[in-house]
Amino acid sequence: MTHDPQKIRNIAIIAHIDHGKTTLLDGLLKQSHIFRDHQVVPERVMDSYDQERERGITIFSKHSSIRFGDYKINIIDTPGHADFSGEVERVLDMVNSVLLLVDAREGPMPQTRYVLSQALKRGYRPVVIINKIDRPYVDSDRVLSETFDLFVELGANDDQLNFPYIFASGLNGYACKDINDPHKDMAPLLQMIVDEVHAPEGSLDKPFLMQVATAPYDDYLQRGACGRILNGSVQKGAMVTHVNAQGEEHTFRITRIRGYHGIQQVDLDEAAVGDIVNIYGMPEVLIGDTLCDPKHVVQLPALRVEEPTISINFMVNSGPFVGRDGKHVTMNKIKERLLREKRANITLRIEEIPGVLDAMRVSGRGELHLAVLIEAMRRESYEFCISKPKVITKEIDGVINESLERVYLEVPEEFSGSVIETLSRRKGEMQSFDTNEHAITRMEFLIPTRGIMGFRHDFLTMTRGEGIMTSIFEAFVPWKGDIEGRKNGVLLSAHQGRVTPYASFALQERGILFVSPNEDTYEGMIVGEHNRENDLIINITREKALTNMRAAGKDENIILTPARKMTLEQAIDYIEDDELVEVTPALFRLRKIFLKENDRKRAQK
Q1: 492 contacts 525 by C-beta, under 8 angstroms
Q2: In contact, 458 and 409? CB cutoff 8 Å
Q3: pLDDT at 61 (0 to 100)
């Protein structure tokens, strides 16, 4: 069934992380009656990827479609974390406006600034939703005023400054134009979308034209092309020309067209201008390619995505425990998997390293962005090593430039001094400082990306876990000079074997251990953090010597401090240039790279 383009509304939901985008969409889907009466619907139904449910964040953009009267509303749920900004940038070109969610208590947050700036650049007039008004201590008037100030700060025009707004509770499933109106359902929000969002541009009379925004993969149908139809219409079985980034043309027959009903894909015989659909039949399609009528071949400009800021190397695991957990351990398998990712994900830059056969370089927008790929490969039984992230530099007018981040911090007032001192040593420049009546200090810094790499662990320690830190890419600036790295050295295992309680008890005063008793270790493996600046080689597998006079049962009780277990992102953040993270399906280890015998002796000293 082809819809009248004037009865279609295409929007994306954007917000700071954890401000309720996915929960609000849950309410819209449930009230649109797309689920069966007794169907069990999980919370955050759009977060279908396992890592999204575990981390509590949206990683990939998701499509859905609901009905409101005669109107079809296509809604795209987008990530809120700046590391996944490429997902946001791609889908914003498919819609005609955005829903900007703002927490009714917290107000606009750092990621709100980023995603809103992207929408304003495209000329969209956002619909602002003051969400979570059911929570205690909300201040919707202040939040609305702060949102307006943010629009002004980001250079919004007069039409954008006159944005429509509404109050809502995604959790309880209601929206209202005035906060004192009856709390019934989401109908006021849907009506505002119909009234305030423009219908898609384009003409049914023009030849078919579409740009690929995402490339979904189906085990049966193979690779597909997802995007909004810009002009004309297309039918199942029709011949369409595919134009890739190099301008090469290939004509193919469409085998399947799929649209959306709720969160489910449904087969369509025909789709027309304004529809967001998946088209199958061309196995070599990539994001940014153009699909058009064979008689009217056109190549659209490539999709613009912000450049990556950091890179890591994926290498073969050369440790003594290689192959214990993973099935795919050779470079050929790792390379094949990374190249498959490259075809479907333009936000990551994946490339071979000239002259290096056992490593590949992957570049992204941040540690979390890269960690999602690493975690996905780990769960697919891949085993490999990764290097310390390196900042990507580029030469501008003969000057080496590096990426600069805008960092927002919230800390208890008593810890603000140590945070300021540390960031200043890391080339940070304070932009704002404010302490509220609750003794919470908010700070804003401009700091090179190198300056915040490895800082998050120290930040949590110095604020006793009470600090909040977020950062977004600002610009490329001239190189800021040397920045201090990790202060403490590491504890290195001298032997291969199992960790013993006896050795751990004797060594825990030397630093913080990363391993627990009975875990396997090998020579050169990092088993802890030293209290001092130098590295220290230790024997953590040592057993207590037993004699006829001292039997095993005579030992006193041993009390061990629990080992520090890092997350994958923390491990990536922690290592230095001469260290690696060894990733396996079961666990990950840190290890030192000994390039020369002199390095081993220097560490031992």
Answers
A1: yes
A2: no
A3: 63
In this prediction, residues 382-408 reach a mean pLDDT of: 88
pTM of the entire predicted model:
0.74
**Burial class (CB within 10 angstroms; exposed 0-12, middle 13-18, buried 19+) of 578:** middle
248, 231 contact by CB (below 8 A):
no
- Going across the sheet that includes 8-15, the strands are 62-68, 71-77, 8-15, 97-103, 127-131, 165-169, 174-176
Contact 44, 27 (CB under 8 A): no
Instruction: Average the pLDDT over 270-295 and give the result.
Output: 87
Classify domain 209-292 at the CATH superfamily level.
Translation factors (2.40.30.10)
How many other CB atoms are there within 10 angstroms of residue 436's CB atom? 10
Query: Torsions phi, psi of 554, nearest 5?
Result: -90, -5
Tell me which residue has tokens 């007069």.
158
Q: What tokens does 86 get? A: 């490429």
Q: Cα–Cα distance between 201 and 8 in angstroms, integer?
A: 10
The DSSP line for 398-440 is TEEEEEEEEEEEEEEGGGHHHHHHHHHHTT-EEEEEEE-TTSE
| DSSP sequence for 229-259 | EEESEEETT-EEEEE-TT--EEEEE--EEEE
What pLDDT, on the 0 to 100 scale, is given for residue 305?
Answer: 67
Tens of pLDDT, residue by residue over 485-538, are: 788 899 999 889 999 988 888 888 899 999 999 999 999 999 999 999 888 999
CB 74 within 8 A of CB 66: no
Write down how long the chain is.
Answer: 605
**500 CB-near residues (< 8 Å, 6+ apart):** 517, 540, 541, 542, 543, 544
| Tokens 């001192």 sit on residue | 421
**CATH 3.40.50.300 correct for 5-196:** yes
Q: Are 510 and 530 in contact (CB under 8 A)?
A: yes
Architecture of domain 394-478: 2-Layer Sandwich (3.30)
CB 50 within 8 A of CB 39: no
Q: Coil, helix or strand for 505?
A: helix
Q: What is the CA radius of gyration of the chain?
A: 27
Question: Biggest alpha carbon distance in the chain?
Answer: 98
- Split at pLDDT 50, 70, 90, the class of 46 is very low
Among 346-360, 376-390, 482-496, 546-560, the range scoring the smallest mean pLDDT is 546-560
For the residues 48-54, what does the mean pLDDT come to?
A: 52
Rounded to whole angstroms, how far apart are CA atoms 514 and 525?
10
pLDDT tens for 73-87 read: 888 877 755 555 556
The closest alpha carbon to 524, from 599, 605, 577, belongs to 599
- As a whole number of angstroms, the distance between CA 556 and CA 569 comes to 38
Does the pLDDT at position 148 exceed 50? Answer: yes
Coil, helix or strand at residue 384: strand
Name the average pLDDT for the chain.
82
Nearest 5°: CA angle at 347, between 345 and 348?
80
Q: Is the pLDDT of residue 42 over 50?
A: no
**DSSP one-letter code for 486:** -
DSSP three-state, residue 269: coil
Domain ranges of the chain: 5-196, 209-292, 394-478
Reduce the secondary structure of 320-375 to three states and give it as a string: CCCCCCCCECCHHHHHHHHHHHHHHCCCCEEEECCCCCCEEEEEECCHHHHHHHHH
